[in-house]
Amino acid sequence: MNDIQRRIHLRPCLAVVAAFAFAGMANAQASATTAPAASAPITAPAELADGEVRKIDKDNAKITLKHGPLKNFDMPGMTMVFGVGEPAMLDRVQVGDKIRFAVEKVNGKLTVVRIEPQS
Question: Which one, of 40, 48, 42, lies nearest residue 103 by Cα?
């Protein structure tokens, strides 16, 4: 088979490959546009973790916690900032308090949904 015959023979194959690639991209794009709304909460089971309040930001409804492992997110202990589900929770704690708390994923962000004093 000479070079010209090879090119003519490959042209339909390339068209089929291109069609499948385009269909795959269109399907991926359609999936992305039909995904659940971002406002729908996606949560893992809330399990209480141990923590210590490091900072409270009432203006932005955030709390900084030094925490132990968050088992429902397979996350090791660390210090991090969380949003809070109810800003009134921040009125019940002070910097330095030892707490137990629950975190859920709400609108794609880890959010404290429950705080209680550590016994």
Answer: 48
Helix (H, G, I), strand (E, B) or coil at 75: strand
Residue pointed to by tokens 């992305």: 32
Using CA atoms, how far apart are residues 16 and 84, in angstroms rounded to an integer? Answer: 52
Q: 0.70 cut: is pTM over it? A: no
Residue 47 confidence class, pLDDT cut points 50, 70, 90: confident
Percentage helix, strand, coil for the chain under 3-state DSSP, each rounded to 5 = 35, 35, 30
Domains in the chain: boundaries: 1-35, 49-117
Q: For the chain, give the mean pLDDT.
A: 79
d(CA 18, CA 7): 16
Residue 55 CA to residue 36 CA, distance in Å, equals: 34
Assigned token pair, 10: 């490959």
Domain covering 49-117, topology: OB fold (Dihydrolipoamide Acetyltransferase, E2P) (2.40.50)
